[in-house]
Amino acid sequence: METSSNIKTFSFGTKDDGNGRTITIKELLDPSYGCYVWPSAFVLAEYIWYKRRGFQGKVIVELGAGTSLPGLLCTSLSPTNHTVLTDRSNFLLVLQNIKDSVLLNIPFFNDTTDTVSDYNNPENEKRKSRIWVRGLTWGEFVNDEDCLPVLLNDIETLWGRKIDWLLGSDTFYDPKDFEDIIGTIAYILVYHSPDAKFLTTYQERSSKRSIQYLLDKWNLECRQISLSELRTDLEKYTIDDDTQQNQVGSNDVSDDTHINQTKDYLESKKHHSQINPSAAYGNSIESIFLLEISLKQ
């Protein structure tokens, strides 16, 4: 059965100063949480753009990437960035959609020779690619192809680097996953990169939910970053109104066709429409918190 999709674009900065970025995302018309861009991803991406100099020349891993807006934005910030976009190993549809979105954006990255690889690619291809899409199940540290120790070893041996930033937008959604997420972060910080930080947007859905006891258990600390630091209006996100109407069967359209359609469209586009946050997301932006988690000093 075909899965229909929408192509959406998100703009950061302005093209007038040659510094703007446009990230193209493919959303699937599927019930899975990871098939849509959530408001928390907007907030995280806007913060990354505001602090973009701190995300250049870095190794970035996005956990529970879904549509990967923050991770793709990071990739676009510097040709020396290395990015790993991850989601659960059994979310095959989501992982394939991440690859599709990467291919849509490669023509607009600084280095248009970029390639995307996954675990199944030969070692030499993984070594030369600076964008990986990998399955990663939180809280699992056994030695199999999609486990965390293998990913960390690949980053160290194939890239010769260590993780600088971990990203996650709305990863704290289901309370049953909270400890697996925190445990995954702690493992990375303790055994791989003690100076790395986990930057996450957290939408409060219940005042009874808290991760503080888990942070204490895993020897982590957290600071809240005020959204007032952002110089942009968080209510203004641009989406191509025409492409919202352009639903395509993902099984019928090749990656090259997606890329060519997107390039032609963006070159010819004369205007954007603005999302009305009240209509699209209610007041959800107001309930989002930006957190930075690190090893307790």
Automatic annotation (TrEMBL):
GO CC field: cytoplasm; nucleus
GO biological process: methylation
GO molecular function, one term: methyltransferase activity
Keywords: Methyltransferase, S-adenosyl-L-methionine, Transferase
Family annotation (InterPro entries): Methyltransf_16, SAM-dependent_MTases_sf
Family: Belongs to the methyltransferase superfamily. METTL23 family.
Name of this protein: 2572_t:CDS:1
Provenance organism: Paraglomus occultum
